[in-house]
Amino acid sequence: MDERKEIINKYIEAYNNFDIQGMMSCLHSDILFRNISNGEVNTETRGIEEFKELAEKSTAIFSSRCQSVTGFAATEDKAEVQIDYEGILAVDLPNGLQTGDKIQLKGRTVFQIKEGKLALIEDYS
Q1: Beta-carbon neighbour count of residue 118 at 10 Å?
Q2: pTM for the model
Q3: Could you read off the pLDDT of 71-114 as tens digits, one per residue?
Q4: CB distance 26 to 4 below 8 Å
Q5: Boundaries of domain holding 36
Q6: Which end of the chain is more exposed for a tag (fewer CB within 10 A), N or C?
Q7: Which residue in 51, 92, 71 sits closest to 8, CA to CA?
Q8: Buried b (16+ CB within 10 A) or exposed e, 78-95
Q9: How many domains does the chain have?
């Protein structure tokens, strides 16, 4: 369990610091990422290159962002982390949100680890 917490915390710290290389170092080459909002998958990447492209695009959207872990639970093959998220937009978005607006969400992220790396990341909000 400590190994799982360690890799998850390392990934979240890199995410919060806009450290793309640090994030990539935590990922399995076959990483599957999904963002699920209101029960619908709105973003999905497969493989480390697709994930890296999304991560690079995402860094341009926010001037700051922070995922804070508020809970942690693990099963045999997965870990679930309760997350408080806050981000400040660096650009205007098509949905009407504008530069400087603050986004605050509560959610959870499910992680699966394979060969010591994150092989699945599913963000739920």
Answers
A1: 23
A2: 0.93
A3: 999 988 799 999 999 999 999 999 999 999 999 999 999 999 99
A4: no
A5: 2-124
A6: N
A7: 71
A8: ebbbebebebebeeeeee
A9: 1
Average pLDDT of the segment spanning 6-31: 97
Across the chain, which distance is largest between two alpha carbons, in Å? 42
How many residues are listed for the chain in this entry? 125
pLDDT digits (tens, 9 = 90+) for 44-62: 999 999 999 999 999 999 9
User: CB neighbours of 26 closer than 8 A, spacing ≥ 6?
Assistant: 7, 10, 11, 14, 117, 118
Contact call for residues 92 and 101 (beta carbons, < 8 A)? no
d(CA 113, CA 121): 9
Q: Which helix (H) or strand (E) holds 62?
A: strand 62-74
Question: What local confidence, expressed as pLDDT, does residue 1 receive?
Answer: 57
Residue 55 and residue 66 in contact, taking contact as beta carbons nearer than 8 Å: no
Cβ–Cβ contacts within 10 Å for residue 36, how many? 17
